[in-house]
């Protein structure tokens, strides 16, 4: 069976697609599930010949329309699995559609781990890296910053491999490529021997966190906190490497904290708040006191990540590290003087500067301020007010989360914006991978 025939046999037509949060929907003319880089290249070539746009979709965890298309939608469920582990170079090469949760578990079985990661692992590796997914870290940066090589199919259906040594200009752009440069087929990550992290979670007052923010970031390898709007309460998390022994949360206590409180009860709280917004401040005061201090030690992905079953819509901005506390204080003051009722905590994380053209941490130490609203709750007034604060600080929006910025603004806050668009012009001059979202954020 030829590649074209094989790919065609997995093609589907006229089925609707929507993202995890349900705020983005699309109806592609054709869907394809290639099972190899060769089939992927054939799917792109065929779409280009038919004059159709092409977008690859991951797990749908982006809140923007970055993957939406009315042309050919490439689903990655057959492009999965580890292709190669190189223990000399300490790298792993993985198919682009592999979910992070499968990669993390497979690496752990091999005694290996990524150095850092975000707080959920439902995304595919291609989706996570293409949108700049990150965790928090003093020295260790986003998942994309751990890429050492990648392969993608460009606008004419040609495969292209790049790294710091091979097509370095493409590599500088494609590690966070927004789906604009091509469709990823494989990604090679740096890995290290699996290690232990000790997590220390502790409630702390807003004013204390704000006053000690710089020290907390300097003293811990990974520091983050959540502030509960309408209260002066925060929950902090410090993750640091440990010599062990492993001491994971107890089965019952872990279930109470991660499932009952953080998901089950939180779902109820948000449902009540959506139905009766006036109850939210009182509920926030109670729920912000429900999480108690705890300490546990485990392998990285079991510490960095946690289940997120309550669905929401999110906006996140990266601001210069030194502007974090001021920006957050402005958000708090805005909420306090407004009629807004916000049931989700505000998340704050950090990242070191990196060298990726469109990374939110490109060329500067960054702090991330993420705001959320429960799915089905009006969010535009809140997000618009927060966005106004963040842009006043030169904020860069997360590529996979709700924002309203366009190419004119983004070209001002990304010094290497023109470098990225030049690579795009070369790899996809006909905009085979274009859509409305990319037209807005990159221009045409």
- Strand order within the widest beta sheet: 17-14-16-15-19-20-18-21
Which stretches of 5+ consecutive residues score pLDDT under 50? 1-9
End-to-end Cα distance: 39 Å
Structural class: alpha+beta
Helix content: 25-40%
Largest sheet: 8 strands, antiparallel
What portion of residues belong to β-strands? Answer: 15-25%
**Strands, count:** 21
Task: List the SSEs and their pairings.
Layout (H helix, E strand, L loop, with lengths): L2 H7 L2 E2 L3 E2 L6 E2 L3 E3 L4 H13 L4 E3 L15 E3 L7 E5 L4 E5 L4 H10 L2 E2 L11 H6 L16 E7 L5 E5 L4 H7 L8 E8 L1 E2 L2 E10 H14 L2 E6 L5 E10 L8 H25 L4 H8 L6 E5 L1 H5 L7 E9 L3 H14 L8 E6 L14 E9 L5 H13 L3 E2 L9 H7 L3 H11 L8 H7 L2
Parallel strand pairs: 4-6, 5-6
Antiparallel strand pairs: 1-4, 2-3, 7-8, 8-12, 9-13, 10-11, 10-12, 14-16, 14-17, 15-16, 15-19, 18-20, 18-21, 19-20
């Amino acid at each position: 069976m030829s590649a074209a025939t094989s790919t065609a046999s997995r093609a589907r037509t006229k089925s609707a697609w929507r993202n995890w949060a349900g705020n983005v929907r699309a109806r592609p003319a054709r869907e394809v599930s290639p099972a190899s880089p060769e089939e992927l290249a054939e799917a792109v070539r065929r779409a280009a010949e038919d004059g159709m746009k092409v977008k690859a979709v991951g797990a749908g965890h982006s809140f923007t329309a970055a993957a939406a298309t009315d042309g050919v939608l490439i689903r990655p469920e057959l492009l999965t699995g580890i292709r190669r582990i190189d223990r000399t170079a300490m790298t792993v090469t993985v198919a682009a559609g592999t979910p992070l949760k499968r990669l993390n578990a497979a690496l752990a079985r091999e005694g290996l781990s990524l150095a850092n990661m975000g707080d959920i692992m439902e995304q595919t590796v291609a989706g996570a890296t293409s949108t700049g997914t990150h965790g928090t870290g003093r020295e260790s940066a986003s998942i994309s910053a751990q890429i050492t090589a990648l392969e993608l199919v460009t606008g004419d259906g040609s495969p292209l491999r790049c790294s710091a040594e091979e097509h370095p200009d493409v590599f500088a752009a494609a590690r966070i490529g927004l789906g604009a440069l091509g469709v990823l087929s494989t990604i090679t990550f740096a890995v290290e021997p699996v290690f232990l992290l000790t997590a220390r979670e502790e409630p702390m007052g807003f004013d204390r966190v704000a006053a000690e923010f710089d020290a907390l970031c300097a003293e811990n390898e990974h520091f983050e906190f959540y502030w509960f709007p309408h209260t002066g309460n925060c929950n902090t998390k410090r993750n640091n490497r440990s010599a062990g022994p492993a001491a994971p949360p107890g089965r019952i206590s872990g279930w109470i904290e991660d499932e009952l409180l953080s998901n089950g009860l939180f779902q109820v709280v948000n449902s009540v708040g959506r139905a009766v917004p006036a109850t939210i401040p009182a509920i926030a005061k109670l729920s912000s006191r429900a999480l108690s201090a705890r300490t546990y030690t485990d392998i990285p992905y079991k510490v960095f990540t946690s289940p997120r079953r309550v669905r929401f819509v999110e906006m996140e901005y990266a601001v210069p590290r030194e502007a974090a506390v001021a920006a957050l204080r402005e958000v708090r003051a805005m909420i306090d003087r407004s009629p807004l009722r916000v049931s989700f905590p505000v998340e704050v994380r950090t990242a070191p500067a990196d060298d990726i053209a469109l990374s939110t941490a490109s060329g500067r130490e960054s702090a991330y301020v993420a705001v959320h609203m429960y799915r089905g709750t009006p969010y535009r007034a809140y997000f618009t007010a927060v966005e106004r604060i963040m842009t006043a600080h030169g904020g860069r929006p997360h590529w996979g989360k709700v924002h309203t910025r366009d190419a004119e603004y983004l070209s001002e806050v990304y010094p290497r914006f023109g470098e990225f668009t030049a690579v795009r012009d070369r790899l996809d001059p006909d905009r085979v991978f274009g859509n409305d979202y990319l037209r807005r954020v990159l221009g045409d």
